[in-house]
């Protein structure tokens, strides 16, 4: 059998790297071997799909009205990673997106700005310049996004390039092939390597690492839980559902399981990990369902752009339309928000 | 005629696979329909009934957990062993019920065939009475019959063998264990049946046969908290309602007597099994 | 931007229901005044009097039974089965059309959250009529023996915990099999049954097929003991069930009983824990725990006790207790002052016997009948809260070490209505399900109901089944299914 290989591997980890990348206690020994890691991941509690779906369906009946809705819409806007990830992206497109990120509703200065603009790494510099001192972060996808099918050296170079271009946040993809083949330690080590590549010079904190699981390819909720734990143990700052290039993307049951993972991880290690659903969240209703899910699964500690993001593009305009409706009392229309 | 003096049988109770005398020491005279002495039968007391319930309860886990196929074979084996005592049963039924030889033989034939009939039912019940329920959701949901537990049976007073088998075999086929009070006046075929059961493959305690008075024992069984169901077919006239009331105290399943004893030769259908079967429904999600 | 996510009130409007100042009985297709003393129906969330309702006297019950007999003999019995089915389909549709009205009225009268009356009680009630409608002309094919025939007049007495749903469980199979009905709703929750009477009128159901006689225990007794009733069906307490069984002893009446429960919900160390916690919560706090099949005894494997209880408590902390008409309410009001007193009494006994009481911080309304979700740990099988049905939002937690011990503890009850099993191991589910002496076993789920699925108990939880093919047998002569 021919395995997947990394012929270019100049940054292969030194022998003593294992100690450096040991997970937080009490999990510091679970990555000591392939079999130990496998046993740990398969020892996580199972997820009953029907029960998880029933739970999110019930939470989906929450009725968020008036003041709660206004709060939810503004909070959701402030959590958006406004995203463009097209082959046709240009500096002009990114600049106009950045302008929208700073002033989502040009007619209303009380409208909050978004959390970040998310682009491909080669355009991170353009985004950085356009966002200036707005406080809005630049997020760049990297590691041979969206498939992740490249040698580790290429992925690391991709990350370093994006960081050098000014990215504050790196959205990496995990190696789903390795995961589905059962090579969990490979998945883990690659995240550790990417995390190291997020280092920034001049004593600045490293770029924040969001780890995309691409749950649409992992298929089962048991896999989603295991992949979440790999990413958290490896030092990811956020776990993120999807690239947006695979369907299904951020479904509510997947979000539930990932939120349970960050909840349990903090309870065990003390470290809080952020969560970012991405792909398929297009309406205010979808966004509010997610906020309810956070509120009732992990609690208000995560109701903050530092700990929760929406990876989205069209969502923002629907949030703005709903915001206008709440403010004016009548329904708005697409010509009353900007195309990007 | 041989001048050999016959060895007479002592008719005892059948409890927990053994043949004790009544703890009370009581017996009563059994005669044929013309009043001639046949035997002294043990007259079971409330304590014998109590011991029988303990035995039936203890036997329940094993008997009810047996595969239906195995239980069917055990019941069929009863028919096989009965066949070997055909003549003895004919004699006892003829004497006890005052039947002609041919009528007694017909009754014994029918009784043996009834065991065969119920033996064939054990592994059909779940398919006929259970099944999958198409619920509106992602769940596999199925129902299956299970035995009720310990069943007290007041056996028919008239039909001493065919009637007895017709009320006992269905209780066993469903996986229940039984405490049976036999016909008071015609208990002898029941004691012989006990000997058949003891020498077949029916585990001890699964069937307990008490000769004696349903009028006396019925109350104890109807009120006994560890009895799950009671068949009042042989309840003495005028006492059935009282027994049913007593049975209500522990929500027992009750089979009421009919005005006259049923025609035991008729096809019983499922009517004597279903009163002693519970339906269990199990749900499980369907997901990946 | 760091404030808590406080859900603003989201009350369902009650303007859709129009409650009259007083109600009579529904006999022979018409609303008539009862001759007993009338009584008040109260909103348990506010103690507001909703209306006055007639109590049926013995004479009223006589009239209702006579009407039912007439309808059985002259109209409903001789009717083509397909037409009987079409009436039931009509009723199912009318319930769907007026679903919101029924849901609001149910929550007002019962105190249950609108989310449950809207998403569970009313849709399931409609589903029961829809399901049974289809049976009406197919009884020969139900595998219940040759030529099943209706029994005649069914006297039915139902409880206050699921007023409309229990009505549907009783009325739909009775009518589908060709019987006519005299139904007595619970004293504290008569309103949706009276609205259902209106639905019968809208469906042009022939007069006398359904008769509704409101009242308390005396009215129920008159129905059960009436000499011209052929069938008695009761859902309620085991104590009353026993008295009914005594009352029908020696009669020709066929009887089905759906009584109390003290279900064990067994959580193994390999359970899908987040779903198990949801199942525990659903099991005991659904409908304020006013559920005969509530999972009121949590049996948790000792090795995972502490983490399971911690998860459970965290989850219970997110339950929203309050206004039943608020769409976001998870736990509504206790149905009556009397029931509240019983819950308090048994909880106090639990504490006195040495169990540890835990309740989340939660603000309860000043008026109305309320009890917070409650968990007792360190409960032993000898405690009263481990044996007696509390019928409220009170969970007793016990532990076990091995599957055998779990089964032994689960079965150590005079009840046998339902049970739960939580484990990822398939063969264990089947083994434990087989060993549990309970009529309904939910594995990796809890409190699920469906008209196709037989429901009913072992032991002192009653006999007979409701739902599915099995549920038809209680209303048919010579049906040999159980």
From TrEMBL, chain A:
<protein>
    <recommendedName>
        <fullName>Deoxyribose-phosphate aldolase</fullName>
        <ecNumber>4.1.2.4</ecNumber>
    </recommendedName>
</protein>
<dbReference type="GO" id="GO:0004139">
    <property type="term" value="F:deoxyribose-phosphate aldolase activity"/>
</dbReference>
<dbReference type="InterPro" id="IPR013785">
    <property type="entry name" value="Aldolase_TIM"/>
</dbReference>
<keyword id="KW-0704">Schiff base</keyword>
<dbReference type="InterPro" id="IPR011343">
    <property type="entry name" value="DeoC"/>
</dbReference>
<keyword id="KW-0456">Lyase</keyword>
<dbReference type="GO" id="GO:0016052">
    <property type="term" value="P:carbohydrate catabolic process"/>
</dbReference>
<dbReference type="GO" id="GO:0005737">
    <property type="term" value="C:cytoplasm"/>
</dbReference>
<comment type="similarity">
    <text>Belongs to the DeoC/FbaB aldolase family. DeoC type 2 subfamily.</text>
</comment>
<comment type="pathway">
    <text>Carbohydrate degradation; 2-deoxy-D-ribose 1-phosphate degradation; D-glyceraldehyde 3-phosphate and acetaldehyde from 2-deoxy-alpha-D-ribose 1-phosphate: step 2/2.</text>
</comment>
<dbReference type="GO" id="GO:0009264">
    <property type="term" value="P:deoxyribonucleotide catabolic process"/>
</dbReference>
<dbReference type="InterPro" id="IPR002915">
    <property type="entry name" value="DeoC/FbaB/LacD_aldolase"/>
</dbReference>
<dbReference type="Pfam" id="PF01791">
    <property type="entry name" value="DeoC"/>
</dbReference>
Automatic annotation (TrEMBL), chain B:
<dbReference type="InterPro" id="IPR016161">
    <property type="entry name" value="Ald_DH/histidinol_DH"/>
</dbReference>
<dbReference type="InterPro" id="IPR016162">
    <property type="entry name" value="Ald_DH_N"/>
</dbReference>
<dbReference type="InterPro" id="IPR015590">
    <property type="entry name" value="Aldehyde_DH_dom"/>
</dbReference>
<keyword id="KW-0560">Oxidoreductase</keyword>
<protein>
    <submittedName>
        <fullName>Aldehyde dehydrogenase family protein</fullName>
    </submittedName>
</protein>
<dbReference type="GO" id="GO:0016491">
    <property type="term" value="F:oxidoreductase activity"/>
</dbReference>
<feature type="domain" description="Aldehyde dehydrogenase">
    <location>
        <begin position="23"/>
        <end position="254"/>
    </location>
</feature>
<dbReference type="Pfam" id="PF00171">
    <property type="entry name" value="Aldedh"/>
</dbReference>
UniProtKB/TrEMBL annotation, chain C:
<dbReference type="GO" id="GO:0016620">
    <property type="term" value="F:oxidoreductase activity, acting on the aldehyde or oxo group of donors, NAD or NADP as acceptor"/>
</dbReference>
<feature type="domain" description="Aldehyde dehydrogenase">
    <location>
        <begin position="31"/>
        <end position="477"/>
    </location>
</feature>
<dbReference type="InterPro" id="IPR029510">
    <property type="entry name" value="Ald_DH_CS_GLU"/>
</dbReference>
<comment type="similarity">
    <text>Belongs to the aldehyde dehydrogenase family.</text>
</comment>
<dbReference type="InterPro" id="IPR016163">
    <property type="entry name" value="Ald_DH_C"/>
</dbReference>
<keyword id="KW-0560">Oxidoreductase</keyword>
<dbReference type="InterPro" id="IPR015590">
    <property type="entry name" value="Aldehyde_DH_dom"/>
</dbReference>
<dbReference type="InterPro" id="IPR016162">
    <property type="entry name" value="Ald_DH_N"/>
</dbReference>
<dbReference type="Pfam" id="PF00171">
    <property type="entry name" value="Aldedh"/>
</dbReference>
<protein>
    <submittedName>
        <fullName>Aldehyde dehydrogenase (Acceptor)</fullName>
    </submittedName>
</protein>
<feature type="active site">
    <location>
        <position position="258"/>
    </location>
</feature>
<dbReference type="InterPro" id="IPR016161">
    <property type="entry name" value="Ald_DH/histidinol_DH"/>
</dbReference>
